[in-house]
Amino acid sequence: MIQNSIGPSYALFVLQALDELGLNDDQYFANTPLDRQRLCLGQDIAMNDFVQLLLNARQSPKGEQLGLLIGQRANIFVLGEVGNAAAAAPTLREGFQALESFTRLHATYIRIEVNSNLAGIAIGIKFLNSLRDTERFHLESAILLFQQYVEMLTGTPLTNAAYRVPYAKPDYAQQYSSLFHSPIHYNSPQMTIELPRETLDQPSPFHNQYLWTQSQYKLAQSIEALRSQDQAPYTQHLLAFLNTREPPLPRLAQIADQLHVSERTLNRRLMNEGTSYRRLKSATTHQWATSYLEHSNLSVESIAALLDYQDTANFRRAFRKQQGCSPQNFRESKLTEKSPTPVS
Hints:
Layout: E1 5-6, H1 8-21, H2 25-28, H3 36-40, E2 45-46, H4 47-57, H5 66-73, H6 81-88, H7 92-106, E3 110-116, E4 120-127, H8 135-154, E5 162-164, H9 176-179, E6 184-185, E7 191-196, H10 209-226, H11 233-243, H12 252-258, H13 263-272, H14 277-295, H15 300-306, H16 312-323, H17 327-338
Parallel strand pairs: 5-6
Antiparallel strand pairs: 1-2, 3-4, 4-7, 5-7
Helix pairs in contact: 1-4, 1-5, 5-8, 6-7, 6-10, 7-10, 7-11, 11-14, 14-17, 15-16
């Protein structure tokens, strides 16, 4: 089920670009079992072969700009089943959560990690296999693909995001200003796309309830299939699901319904993986609590209400149990850490 391959659309995009630049087929397909006819069949190709195509194409004029050439041609539908799920999602937030879940289950060379925060969501991209000096191409095309996806759903240019890339400013960076509609920051620890929260939960004009339900059913089948491989697919899925949401976090019934299982069945499968929904939700809720206390001016009472506690006393007890101090003491300690050290 988990594959180290990529859809043929990307290779065809490169081929289109190279036709414009004059690279012949012998040069493009060197050291691969591929040819133009096989690409046109529309079947996935091995990741190693795709990387070799990029390395071959890199030798052409403007070869260093392949990431931009691919990204300008790509859209969310090149991701196949994953892209269809994202396009049919009710909102951008749920679309990116679907991207994370499907790529985690169906691809071995890439991980998409989506985490909510007070400002919006941060989408991290990690490559788990060697891309042999072509990583920048993949990152550039990913930025353009995700930017196009957001703009397709919102109908407006994405100018209030931030793109952080783990490489130095390239020689052709002047093209970035016309292609990337938000600021780009170089030499970051990892690739991250930061999206503002105001774009995330507005209804998508492309939402299709039937296709969205079908995609969730396929996702549930994939998760269930991984149980036989001694993994913890339900735990991983629920953590990813919770990490993309803002408080108040969803009830177990909502997630069970999405996965087409009963609450009892889902609880039992989590128990078999050594955890529970209560434990996972508690950990995520605590992360939000520390974030609110450190980065907002909300009162402890307001934070307790946002986190869906019945009363502030319950929140204080739960926080002390997790953190070892009261919410107020935690906030004060963080303020002290941020205060400038007096000059003697």
